[in-house]
Target: Phosphohistidine phosphatase
Amino acid sequence: MTSQGVAVKTLIVVRHAKAEHVAGLADRERGLTARGERNAREAGDLIRPLEPALIVSSPAVRTRRTAELLGLDAPIELDGGIYEAYPDELLELLRRTDPEVDTLVLVGHNPGVHELVLSLTGTQDDRFPPGAFAVIELAAPWEEVVPRTGRLVRTHHP
Model:
């Protein structure tokens, strides 16, 4: 709780794990490399203690597979708006989150997810490689989330 009594929400922003590059395969159809699969499982082990209530993922194969391999005890919702989304579009998605959800995992793509982390926290970090995640505490309900309403608690780069 903050000093104003507003429940703190937790957002975990995950960039999909390392994707394979296959000639002729559509970008949305790219899967994960063996290393990417390992990194996604490791990220899940680190995220699991935060007990996310919901995972929202881009429907692209590599993001959906990353979300699955996190192995979290939370439902996965696919949202096509995450693919190629700008940070302001991701903020809109966050604002539509059910108020009952205290901890949300967002699995998406760069540059949007990295720019979202920077926008919410006001931090500067040049790196957000495949499989990276950031844990952000938000001192506002989802519908009021705007830039700089978050505090960066932790980052992880595989």
